[in-house]
């Protein structure tokens, strides 16, 4: 069963993909589907003996270009829709035992180009409204394949969280005439929550960090998406992403799990999104200390109200000290 | 540092309570702060040798009646507010080694009255806009005290998730003239997702379940909150909650972790909430099978878009078979 179902009590779509129960779950290293194929030997999902960055369709996609018809019939109360979209895998390296932080700098720079390219291609597909590159890293996040990789989802509508941000940015712009993220960048560029700076981008712990060591990496100028970044801006963004992940690992003393996600402009034509879309990359590590996790429980899950017990200024100071 | 900070990029408040880093973390059983105090011996947070249900203020509250002034100065971009509200603990039993499911039936019935009473009292406090009883159960949810207990949070505004539900219910009512949850109950009362029924309440896996074994327990009649339930309705609601938790444990073969939350009417006077508030109790267990968890990662956390790989009809059938 692969379909999208509408939740009329929250005005949200939920995607069901029951074939994903069969997906690979922590395969042993010598059975990794993201490793190179051996000449004359095992064929993995990448039919090459060596590679730098590879993208391809997820074999167990939640959203696909030619989805089956929904199994249930929709009603006025419960609309249903095909699980249309695209789920891509982005393999960072042919080395099973590395991480985003441990890639060479030029590989991270290449990844930014790959993201920009795939966002442009997938976003131009009719019916795709939002494209989000992201990485889930670490077993505590539920990652089932250890080989360093990220994902790119192309959604048929703007997902709830970016939609909320765009609504807030629109309201802010109506009130002040300015972009809220531009104002945030101005407030954070030299303040106590700033972690890293480059000529065209900064990394900071948000004033309102929902996760203790949350960091946002944002271009200083108003750029709606990755494709709008110039050469220097891409270099600076990739440099900060790389330094940040290395600093995370240094501060915690181990390879820090996180969710990283790129939020940019929707790719539909519903309105001119440029004025209210300011590209940002969000890192949300689940750790609140080296030995403890921040769990999402009653207040966060059922209430949507985040409680945090680390001051953003303190997290930023600790991170600054580890950036090297 | 205890304060609320506004996120202008998402139009959300986040609560900071850094003293909570010091809260008790999985104390050994003989040091449990929720166990009875021993005569002439150790004094716990409950100064009684025996009790049924006890409620008291959380010693490490995120929200409190007399919060300190915020440490940072607010700005136009970043408003701040005191962390006003109330966090209560609800201890279910003086027996450290029991669970909600294993309580006697009359104790669960009593808990419904206790929730109704505390929601009324806390909701009448000036400045409190929403009161949510909930239970975080299990180490995988991050529970730090094993003694069976729940919590009640009194928030200074309607939290994002209930606010979203109320907006959806308002839009549905404007469109159809009806309560969306009343229509959901009518659709689920005898269908393939129904798990349990009683004369005045039902339990079902939602059509749009975000978690594989999510179950909602809802009064059949339009009741805005716990206080509006009559005697039979309270008995039926507590009976279904109890049977459901016992069935969960039976199906999985162990004491199933979950977040349980009661969503009812806001307690502020912003509008007449009665027509759009229909009481419901949500259970969201993190397990997608006995050995695997559903993790919230990129799509859910950064996108707000839930992906599920268990069909609600199948989860409901499995649950029905385990209800006894």
Helices and strands in order:
2 copies of one chain form a homodimer.
Chain A: E1 2-7, E2 12-17, E3 54-57, E4 80-81, E5 86-91, H1 105-123, E6 130-137, E7 149-155, H2 160-176, H3 180-188, E8 194-198, E9 201-204, E10 215-219, H4 231-252, E11 258-263, E12 280-284, H5 298-302, E13 307-308, H6 312-322
Helix pairs in contact in A: 1-4, 4-6
Structure description:
The structure is a homodimer of 324-residue chains. With 324 residues, chain A is an alpha+beta fold. Chain A has one domain (24-59, 85-322): HIT-like (HIT family, subunit A), CATH 3.30.428.10. In chain A, 26% of the residues lie in helices and 20% in strands. Chain A has six helices and 13 strands. Chain A has helices at residues 105-123, 160-176, 180-188, 231-252, 298-302, 312-322, and strands at 2-7, 12-17, 54-57, 80-81, 86-91, 130-137, 149-155, 194-198, 201-204, 215-219, 258-263, 280-284, 307-308. A nine-stranded antiparallel sheet of chain A has the order 3-5-7-6-11-12-10-9-8. The longest helix of chain A is centred in the last third of the chain and has 22 residues, at 231-252. In chain A, 47% of the residues are buried. The mean pLDDT of chain A is 95. Chains A and B meet through strand 1, strand 2, strand 6, strand 7 and helix 2 of A and strand 1, strand 2, strand 6, strand 7 and helix 2 of B. Chains A, B: Residues 2-159 form the Galactose-1-phosphate uridyl transferase N-terminal domain. Chains A, B: It comes from Frankia umida.
